Amino acid sequence: MAMQQASTGIAERTLAIIEDLKGLEGPLLPILHGIQEEFGYVPQETLPVIADALNLSRAEVHGVVTFYHDYRSHPAGRHVLKLCQAEACQSTGSDATTARVKQLLGIDFHETTEDGSVTLEPVYCLGLCACAPSAMLDDEVIGRLDADKIDEIVAEVRA
Ligand code: FES
């Protein structure tokens, strides 16, 4: 029963977002964006509601959600750690720092640790190229990533 109420709440909030945005040209992406802002991710149960409202198939909506990695299909962890993968960071060793973070956390990009502490995501330039390789932990940008900083970040997200 509680589950059903939760789903109804999600459907209602989804419909309100759709109502606000469906007049836009190409409303699907703004609607998905609005839903992710509202819930922190795009819950599965919103897909049929969006499909019905926009006259699309569920497969089409699902395809768009999975194509754009910005949309999460599961709630994010308590922290979100973004590692820059763009050129300036690549040329200063982001491959190695990324591999170290993934190894220490035991997850790949777009995954969340089992304890729910952190979600790992790639990002493409944080405007911090002069201090590459760069990262962003929640709202805080971090430059000159090295092994020590990575250890600090991992300890912080696990605290
Ligand atoms: S390329 Fe990584 S911050 Fe610009």
What's the short version?
By secondary structure, this protein is of the alpha+beta class. It has helices at residues 2-21, 28-39, 46-54, 58-67, 87-91, 94-105, 147-158; strands spanning 79-84, 111-112, 118-123, 135-137, 140-142. The mean pLDDT is 92.
Bound molecules: FE2/S2 (inorganic) cluster
Largest sheet: 5 strands, mixed
Mean pLDDT: 92
Q: Please give the number of β-strands.
A: 5
Distance, first to last CA: 35 Å
Run of helices and strands: HHHHEHHEEEEH
Spans of at least 5 consecutive residues whose pLDDT stays below 50 are: none
Please, could you describe this protein's structure?
- The chain has 159 residues and is an alpha+beta fold.
- It has seven helices and five strands; from the N terminus they run ααααβααββββα.
- Strands 2-3-1-4-5 form a five-stranded mixed beta sheet.
- Helix 3 (46-54) crosses helix 4 (58-67) and helix 6 (94-105) packs parallel to helix 7.
- The longest helix has 20 residues, at 2-21.
- The radius of gyration is 18 Å and the shape is elongated.
- The two termini are 35 Å apart.
- The relative contact order is 0.12.
- It binds FE2/S2 (inorganic) cluster.
- The site of FE2/S2 (inorganic) cluster has 11 residues, from helix 5.
Write the layout of secondary structure elements.
Elements: H1 2-21, H2 28-39, H3 46-54, H4 58-67, E1 79-84, H5 87-91, H6 94-105, E2 111-112, E3 118-123, E4 135-137, E5 140-142, H7 147-158
Parallel strand pairs: 1-3
Antiparallel strand pairs: 1-4, 2-3, 4-5
Helix pairs in contact: 1-2, 1-3, 3-4, 6-7
The structure holds FE2/S2 (inorganic) cluster (FES).
FE2/S2 (inorganic) cluster is lined by residues 84, 86-89, 125-126, 128-129, 132, 134.
